[in-house]
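Example complex used in Figure S2.
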Amino acid sequence: MTESPVAASGSTLLMVGTRKGLFLARSEDRATWAIEGPAFAMNAVYAVAVDTRRETPRLLVGADSEHWGPSVFHSDDLGASWEETEGGALRFPAETGAALARAWQLQPAGADQPDVVYAGVEPAALFRSDDGGATFSLVEGLWDHPHRPRWQPGGGGLCLHTVVPHPTDADRVLVAVSAAGAYRTEDGGKSWQASNAGIQALHQPDPFPEFGQCVHKIARNPSRPDEMFLQNHGGVYRSRDGGEHWETIEDGLPATFGFPMVAHPHTPGTAYAFPLVADAHRMPPEDRLRVWRTTDGGDSWHGLDAGLPREPAYSTVLRDAMCADDEPTAGVYFGTRGGDVFGSADEGETWGSVARYLPDILSLRAARVP
Amino acid sequence: MTATQVQVRVPASLRSYTGGRPVVDVDIAALGGAPTVGTLLDHLAAVHPDLERRVRDEQRRLRRHVNVFVGTENVRDLSEQGTPVVGGDEVAIIPAVSGGT
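Predicted assembly (471 residues):
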């Protein structure tokens, strides 16, 4: 295990984005939680972020109104007040002919770039902010990629839903698009190359195309950044070379379909998944809520369900509805489309309820805050 | 409102972008030589940008679940943003019933 961060005073904040607004859960002990909300009521909150690189943590939210369109907000007082980015911030240039449908991901970059925040959006594109999320501009190198006109949408639309910045090398970023697969840049976004070698595309005649995979989520451990874990639309993979090549890591998993993938915040080789039976049967195996963890880089997986409900469960956990916090003993959280949020304060060994009866859980992020 | 103005009715959920006002009066002369719903919304983009971008996206297309009426006629049944407006018209921005979640 690498060196863990030292717990500071304060509490753990869990941002809970739902189909009908944002809820904020706070806890001193990660066992009992106080829930506030909803903010942005009736807005779908697909993207949340806690930016702890700043002296004062900044909360970021992408909120979509069915009527009035999407926008991005931030708060520097832990959610007491929210400021909308100027002009809605994420706006496609006129010459693209595109219009923002949704912010799918708001992702702070590495600690060496404290003002850089990435946004992955629908239609599939990457935006970058150099002022902490106040304003954004289109990353044209990816927008101009010759593959882009041939990208096909997944079930959620043609969206760039995952941004994985390198923790120490500002030039290296990996993104995932449904259903185009992974792309990576090593020159700060000027050029991008498909990064899907070894990932199977189950819905194409060529099972290993250069692009067109339906990658659902990618996670990386910041202390071993070349190792990444990937949940595909059928298939679980790892890369140990920064995404150049991928290999399956499915031994021990009850199923290979699913949406989220979470890397442990400071223990390399440890990651969490939430498998579903299959594309055509999107329910947990054995109808049981159960998180699966590897601690050996994906060579083996083990189910974790102590404290989770014993009743049959049929709900899905969406791609951003699982996360870890940054505590020395990591907390892990997941939320269901049925509106339940569960948390573990001991790396997944035991679980408890954080919140119940919320709208569908779309996005979770957690961190210790003052 | 006078015959030289267009009266824009703003739904309650957007009045935070008009200082709380339910109606915005716009001089027809501010809309150019051939005033339309489009030039009216262009004008709103200049004076109330946070209101306008909730009615149209960044490519100036009407959002899917927003309706704009001139009098009692939905502009989608007329000429969309090319629908003419004249002094004395009432233009209403109304969320569509289809946009719930």
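The helical segments of chain B are 37-47, 49-55. Chain B has a mean pLDDT of 95.
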